[in-house]
What does this fold into?
Amino acid sequence: MSFAREGADVVVAARTASEIESVVSDVKALGRKGVGITVDFSQREAIQPFVDRVFSYFPIVHILVNNAGIGSSQNLKPVIDFDDKFWDVSLFVNLTVPYLLMKAFLPKMIEHGCGRIMNISSSAGKKGYEYARAYCASKHGLIGLTRTVALEVATTGVRINAICPGPVRTSMLTKRLQFEAERKGISIQEIEKTRTPIQRLLEPEEIAFLAVYLASEEAEGMTGQSLNICGGSLMY
It folds into this structure.
């Protein structure tokens, strides 16, 4: 929604059609073109058809936000009991999919001499968390991927940065907080206060505002960065 408010046409991609339709409706209400595409990014064979559909609607894509991801809440186990298949799918969705989508959309960005890519990493891309080895490993890797590709295209007019959110109020995080609250015998509200120095979770809109800034002309000088927005839980 934040991009639509700034005048952008938007492609929304997710697995759940109802969620997509809601966002697309809101985008259209702002007078912008909104397109929804249902896609399961855990399936490699879904990537190219998705890219083809995007280009059928928009021959030039100026902004790519790689936000698809799998968290740790679905497999909260110690490493010795961890599900190897969940490891594989976590690294694929969180790291390989952004690589494949950048590879698909970069050529036209480079051809036109402009483009913005924001890879949504995490504070878990800079530190470790218990019971989150696949998530942490993939998000660390995404920062490395961001830095490398940003260097490769630095002279082309394309800027690539990573955003590293702390705990954001999402259904995915809620599952993990419930697990921690039960494990420690305290309420989920108490757990939330311990997650950041500002004693609250971040809201999704706060992350979107940073993405919009990175897509703006004002951020022309920024590339290869991994920017924290984490309520003070990271200060480096």
Notes: Residues 84-112 form the longest helix (29 residues). The radius of gyration is 18 Å. Residues 167-201 form one domain.
